[in-house]
Amino acid sequence: MKPLKQVAQAYLAVREGDGKLQAGEPEGSARAFRRAMELTRTIPEEEVFEHDGFDAMCLAGLAEALASLGEYPAALDAADRALRYFGRRGELHQDEGKRWIAAVLARGLALARSEQAQDALKAFETAREMISERKGELPGKEDMLVMIEENIGLLRRTMPDEPAGRKGWWEFWS
């Protein structure tokens, strides 16, 4: 198969994964994102292709699909792998951070369901900040913000209060 054809098929699989995710079919979405990554592995090494960036894009979608399926450890792994790339290099396609936001949200969900409340709270707050600072259209923005606020509220209600008498770091410098 010619590399151009492999790349085209891989991007079609990503598009299919996105479509199935939007249609509420996370199982099909996860399969499509995995297939997209597998397709790019057949591209000869001498061909120039940004595997890490493409994988990060797919892993962000995969994390979202796996979180929807309740596969939280796998979702957390996929989100963390995507975020390692995004943190170093940014998003492969300047999609205004849509995939990056999706990875942070999936990470928050996975952490919350894995009883890592403090880390989950940080992830949701980061996602909220990313969404509020984002310029341009973001499909489902309002739904995402509602979901984030619900999760933040739930996490705060279930987290123990800080011990009395403990000072914040900023109080030592004032």
Automatic annotation (TrEMBL):
Query: Which SUPFAM superfamilies does this entry report, sorted A to Z?
Result: TPR-like
Q: Name the Pfam families for this protein.
A: DUF3856
Look up the domain of life of the source.
Bacteria
For this protein, the record's InterPro entries field holds:
DUF3856 (IPR024552), TPR-like_helical_dom_sf (IPR011990)
Q: Where is the signal peptide?
A: none
Q: Where is the DUF3856 domain?
A: 2-144
Question: Which named protein is this?
Answer: DUF3856 domain-containing protein
Native organism is: Prosthecochloris vibrioformis (Chlorobium vibrioforme)
